[in-house]
Amino acid sequence: MQKIIFIIALLLTAGYINAQQIPPGSCGLLYKYDAAGNRISSEYFCNATGSPIDMRTAVNPAKDQAAPTDEASFVKVDVLFPNPTTGRFTVRFAKPLNNTPILITDATGRTIRQLTGNGYSLEFDISGQAAGTYYIVIRNGKDNLVQKVIKQ
Fold it and tell me: InterPro entries annotated for this entry (predicted)?
């Protein structure tokens, strides 16, 4: 009987510990809270690696203690196509970008290209890069939207 109670307690604890992790192969919002329980940031995150790493930490470590995020200003990608790509691809946004910083990084976090985005749709060309996994990092204030692109 004690073993059963121990196993149940262990399973419940494991579920609580993993509550803020995004399962591999899916996307979702991750929230960060201060000591008082106030939400201080949110990040749309796609976990395509099999382990929940925070691309903001890999690409832009530092600024994390700021005012709560305005959900209405959060950038959302409507569609990214074609993916996988041979080099040229398009990203369409639900809201227009307005001088929004954008990075293209490789799988190691090395910046391939930096640009400023405007409008509902942007075209990218990574034809000169090797085949592999690349990330489009769209910076919106202190929040980042990360989209994975596979180049064949």
Answer: Secre_tail (IPR026444)
